[in-house]
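Sat 14:20. Reprocessing the chain from the morning session after the first attempt stalled halfway. Input below, unchanged.
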Amino acid sequence: MIRPGRFYPNPETAADNAFQGDTDRGSDALTLVARKEFNAAVQTLRAAGVSVHVFEDTAEPEKPDAVFPNNWISTHHDGRIALFPMYSALRRRERRQDIVEELRKHYRVTEVIDYSAFEDEGCYLEGTGSLVFDHLNKFAYVSLSNRSNPKVIRRFADDFSYEPVIFTSIGSNGQSLYHTNVMMCIGTAFAMVGLDMIPNKAERQQVRSRLEKTGKEIVELSADQIANFAGNAIELQNKTGDKLLVLSSRAGGALTEDQRERLSRYARLVPLELPTIELGGGSARCMTATIHLPPPS
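Finished this time. Tokens:
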């Protein structure tokens, strides 16, 4: 997780990110509150037994979305790290070699595969914002958008031996959803997903059947719940092996009592207070770049 050094809704991403919020507060005030929310979130996760590596955002140049590192880096069980091509030029500054080197000190890193050259072709794939992984079954669910390009999806899927499940999801504004992870969260035994946001019946059925065949209990999310970040959740495992479902308080409040009860069978819900950070268009899932790297040999 990366503590924001300068936080405000990114003007370069506002056009296609309907989840961003409007605010009349200046960046100094927003940054102060966002840092408090970040610190409280880290404290809550650590209290729940999650191991959290916190990195400080570098002051220059400004990176308003630095608090959402999952879009530029992913780590994998075989020791590989992927670095991703980013749609917003402001966001390309977030890729940091020093973070990769720090991970090498704690885990076994076998290779770093850098896809950022695709930016020169206008092709983007924004990490685990674009790709929602079912690591156990080696599927990568991807909703197409200008941030999730088929050419890069295929390259990544070939390199990392994932089978892509590709579809298009449409928001209430008629636009493609900018990231898959706002409408879908896959846990070990469950999946939260806005199936109604996939207008193509064949694609919708493909996603449903793939989830069912891999033994996931499907918890369907409404468009309103997704607008409140209910899809931007993540299953984590703490140091004692317990499963946790981390989501924002806003997202948790948007779930029905039945949904919370069903999800609680598989994971303990851990809500985080993120109202200011969510103005940036991301929530709890976007703030966490999960570490799957093996321990040092």
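Residues 247 and 284 are 5 Å apart (CA to CA).
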